[in-house]
Recover the amino acids of this structure.
């Protein structure tokens, strides 16, 4: 850890710019009009600004011994509706109508400051107050409390939030205040809260962070409070589209029963706190989204330590997400995207980097119009499609062929004003690049950019080819007919007819049919699942012969391996409760091989094994009958879809399987499911509407290494542990 962040602990933490931010305090019963001696006077209709972060309750406080509903942060502004003794009834834009202790809006609260935590025992008969000098008191007891703040001769004691929580409300820890003279005994905590030497339970340490960490906290202060992290890594993105990418560094504290990740800006200011915690129990009740400093992720599996990989190179590029599109012997073709969609998508780019160093060779920016690219059949050039020109600030649909190594333009095709290109894309076939738009298809010679043929459509149509895989024909679906067009001549090679259209009254599920591709050794796709009307049809693309068919329903369907569909569906069980079932359909056999109760997804097939996330944990099942080969032990049943992005898939190596699992990449033994750890320095991300890129561009490997695209602007090449 950097010496800049290692300070010797003392009685008070280093000074803060917001000394009382991040505090949670005591919940009380309904306020009564009791006069507070020396309290600040607030009036109805007055705007007040918090000088210290204050507990708030939605409606009258009604959880005396539980916790607070939410926080107001330093600088938050409220309009007073009513002043009632020690409390204010107030309103804010973010939280609506709340109750909060008036002291936190007074000038007195401005000078409160944190102290390094101590265990405190109170004298018999001592009283605890909701704020310094408040008239509302609770009796103390013989338990040890933790001190976290001081104001004059008052000490703020942290009480942990306590379940069970009423009405499924997740409540925060809080503070009570006592005077110095009420302290019987004090023992200072000598180590950081999350230090390896600390004996503090993880649950208590979590409550400390909720009570003491705040946005903008200096890294030096956080280091004293938390201790030295187990590993320091580049942080996740600290911004969301349309803001530009901004990252810092993350401190990871890794315990067997939970991980804490504290992320700091490059200026050393705390910006985000994320807890990875076991799922199950009262702690699964959701947290408030208002205090977005804190994030919580629940996991069913154990929490492995991070394993520091051997990094050949790691580079941060311009945009949040980077995915591999293709490669040749010395160059990688990448796509960068800010991850936004709808009105929040501002930037995308196609660029090339040196395979040995990661140095960027060239880049084409596409702005918010989106982009796509296709490696040429020879591998020495790339066809790049853009729909917006950021330099000219206008929509221009442009397809250009550029040298993969030098980025020099070889040829350019622009459809012109008479073509309406709101819908457009590119597809690869043997010898031709296919451009398609709302009005029709243009086939272009891969080598010199000459137009081979054009075909316009008077009715709505759809091209089913992808930009990452090559098919023998151009596949154009119009109405109830699928046309296979020769890419060099445009002539019809075969048709697939009498397609039954989808029924509007049926609710259909989600699906991913993009084939699995080895981007370092691509080969033409001969057979593929296509959505044709209301059915998934497994088709021989060379002949147009139907190989198998599966009806589209309200299910999650993912094409995996050669002709298989992994299906997740909901169905009523014997008790009429909704149950989740996972099924494997074999296109070659034309039937379902097995159906199991449980939730399975994010899968890959090798041999007679299917590797997937099963009920929240990495697992291996026998392909033929679904019987478990191994499943990683779980601590508790999962409560979230962590590890279930529809398009992401495990990456199978010789002796290891790499499982995308939330933002982490897990390293698991292929034969026995042994947990080898989290691959350090990696932050995965799953931007909406980028499923095809996630499926094949997130994790790739060759003998030279592993290539991993991150969700924080990084793309890296790691040493392949299996050669």
């Amino acid at each position: 850890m950097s010496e800049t962040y290692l300070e010797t602990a003392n009685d008070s933490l280093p000074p803060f710019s917001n000394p009382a931010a991040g505090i949670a305090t005591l919940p009380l019963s309904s306020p009564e009009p009791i006069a507070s001696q020396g309290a600040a006077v607030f009036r109805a209709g007055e705007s007040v600004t918090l000088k210290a972060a204050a507990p708030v309750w939605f409606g009258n406080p009604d959880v005396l011994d539980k916790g607070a509903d939410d926080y107001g942060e330093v600088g938050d502004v409220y309009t007073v509706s009513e002043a009632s003794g020690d409390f204010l009834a107030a309103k804010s834009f973010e939280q609506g109508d709340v109750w909060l202790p008036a002291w936190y809006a007074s000038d007195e609260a401005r000078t409160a400051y944190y102290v390094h935590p101590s265990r405190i025992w109170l004298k018999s008969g001592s009283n605890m107050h909701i704020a310094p000098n408040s008239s509302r008191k609770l009796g103390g007891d013989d338990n040890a409390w933790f001190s976290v703040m001081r104001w004059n001769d008052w000490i703020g004691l942290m009480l942990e939030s306590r379940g069970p929580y009423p009405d499924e409300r997740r409540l925060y820890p809080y503070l009570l205040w006592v005077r110095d003279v009420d302290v019987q005994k004090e023992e200072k905590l000598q180590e950081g809260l999350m230090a390896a030497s600390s004996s503090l339970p993880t649950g208590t340490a979590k409550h400390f962070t909720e009570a003491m960490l705040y946005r903008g906290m200096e890294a030096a202060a956080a280091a004293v409070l938390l201790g030295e992290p187990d590993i320091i890594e580049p942080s996740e993105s600290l911004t969301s589209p349309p803001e530009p990418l901004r990252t810092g560094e993350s401190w990871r504290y890794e315990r067997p029963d939970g991980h804490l990740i504290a992320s700091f800006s490059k200026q050393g200011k705390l910006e985000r706190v994320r807890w990875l915690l076991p799922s199950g129990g009262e702690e699964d009740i959701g947290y408030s989204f208002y205090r977005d400093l804190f994030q919580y992720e629940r996991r069913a599996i154990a929490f492995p330590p991070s394993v520091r990989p051997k990094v050949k190179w790691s580079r941060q590029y311009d945009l949040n997400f980077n995915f591999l599109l293709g490669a040749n012997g010395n160059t990688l073709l990448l796509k960068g995207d800010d991850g936004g969609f709808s009105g929040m998508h501002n930037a995308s780019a196609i660029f090339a980097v040196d395979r040995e160093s990661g140095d960027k060779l060239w880049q084409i920016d596409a702005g918010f119009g989106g982009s796509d690219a296709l490696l040429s059949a020879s591998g020495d050039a790339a066809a790049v499609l853009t729909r917006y020109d950021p330099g000219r600030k206008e929509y221009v649909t442009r397809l250009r062929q550029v040298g993969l190594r030098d980025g020099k333009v070889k040829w350019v095709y622009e459809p012109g004003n008479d073509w309406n290109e709101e819908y457009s894309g590119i597809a690869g076939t043997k010898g031709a690049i296919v451009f398609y738009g709302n009005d029709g298809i243009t086939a272009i010679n891969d080598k010199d950019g000459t137009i081979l043929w054009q075909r316009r459509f008077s009715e709505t149509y759809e091209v089913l080819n992808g930009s990452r895989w090559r098919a023998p024909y151009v596949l154009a679906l119009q109405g109830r007919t699928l046309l296979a067009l020769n890419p060099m001549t445009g002539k019809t090679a075969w048709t697939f007819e009498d397609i039954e259209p989808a029924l509007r009254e049926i609710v259909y599920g989600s699906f991913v049919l993009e084939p699995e591709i080895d981007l370092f050794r691509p080969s033409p796709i001969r057979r593929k699942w296509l959505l044709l009307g209301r059915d998934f049809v497994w088709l021989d693309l060379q002949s147009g012969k139907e190989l198998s068919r599966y009806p589209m329903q309200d299910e999650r369907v993912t094409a995996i391996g050669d002709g298989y569909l992994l299906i997740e569906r909901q169905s009523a069980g014997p008790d009429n409760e909704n149950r989740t079932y996972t099924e494997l359909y074999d296109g070659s056999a034309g039937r379902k091989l097995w159906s199991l109760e449980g939730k399975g997804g994010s899968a890959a097939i090798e041999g007679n094994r299917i590797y997937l996330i099963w009920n929240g944990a990495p697992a291996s099942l026998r392909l033929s009958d679904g019987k478990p080969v191994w499943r990683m032990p779980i601590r508790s049943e999962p409560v979230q879809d962590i590890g279930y992005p529809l398009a992401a898939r495990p990456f199978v190596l010789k002796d290891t399987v790499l499982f995308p699992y939330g933002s982490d990449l897990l390293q698991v033994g292929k034969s026995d499911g042994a947990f080898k750890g989290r691959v350090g320095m990696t932050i995965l991300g799953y931007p909406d509407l980028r499923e095809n890129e996630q499926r094949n561009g997130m994790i790739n490997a060759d003998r030279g290494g592993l290539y991993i695209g991150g969700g924080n602007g990084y793309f890296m090449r790691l040493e392949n542990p299996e050669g």
Remarks:
- The mean pLDDT is 85.
